[in-house]
Write a structure and sequence with these properties.
By secondary structure, this protein is mainly alpha-helical. The protein has one domain. It has a two-stranded antiparallel ribbon. The mean pLDDT is 88.
Length: 225
């Protein structure tokens, strides 16, 4: 039976794959614009600048997939700790440090007082804030640091994933677009649909293997000391 984590990932990955398949057909001229109402209908090729914009949008979709996947995976770790009533005292030291840092960063003393009855149990879920995990800064280096901090493996098959090297390009393009440093046509001008499809394929393989590592980490309770 597929886990909730993989169910959500597969659904999002399928959405991204459909978009990149559209880009390939667009570049090959299989998709055209139909304008007007019968009998006055004109068929036109997609404007080249629009094609560049659509390609640039592909980087936004990929970044969204990356950040949501890793965020949901970290949330799954905290959900498991909560569901199994794991005590703070039983956690590995690396995870204890994360929880304390989360509390210092995310919570006020009033929130601490309001949400905690049994501090050894409640401090774990009370410290977690899904919205503050990542903010436009996730790439393979960040995932590696996160893996080292939590104690799960960041190793993947480099032949299939290139160790996540594509994530830096995706993050950079995403941030250039989000902050207005580059236009969509600038970001999309040099990318071919085939190159984007290959990037998408490697990224999905990379994320799938990271999720597998995290599922092993959870199932074997490697978060315990």
């Amino acid at each position: 039976m597929k886990s909730q984590l993989f169910g959500d990932f597969d659904e999002r990955a399928q959405e991204v794959s459909k978009y990149f398949f559209l880009l390939k057909n667009l570049e090959q001229g299989s998709i055209k614009l139909k304008m007007g109402n019968p009998p006055h209908v004109k068929v036109k090729n997609i404007d080249t600048d629009l094609e560049k914009t659509l390609k640039a949008t592909g980087f936004l979709l990929l970044y969204n997939l990356i950040e949501s996947t890793i965020r949901n995976a970290i949330e799954a770790i905290f959900d498991d700790l909560k569901n199994k009533n794991i005590s703070f005292d039983d956690l590995r030291d690396e995870l204890k440090k994360i929880i304390i840092q989360n509390f210092k960063k995310n919570k006020s003393p009033d929130q601490l007082f309001k949400n905690i009855n049994n501090i050894a149990l409640d401090i774990i879920s009370a410290s977690f804030d899904k919205e503050k995990l990542f903010s436009g800064n996730i790439d393979a280096r960040k995932i590696k640091k996160t893996a080292e901090a939590y104690g799960f493996s960041y190793n993947t098959n480099p032949q299939k994933t290139q160790n996540g090297n594509d994530l830096l390009t995706i993050k950079t393009n995403r941030n250039d677009l989000a902050h207005g440093f580059k236009s969509f046509t600038e970001v999309g001008k040099d990318a071919t649909a085939e190159e984007l499809l290959q990037i998408k394929k490697r990224v999905i393989c990379y994320l799938r293997e990271i999720l597998q590592n995290i599922e092993i980490y959870i199932s074997q309770q490697e978060y315990l000391k």
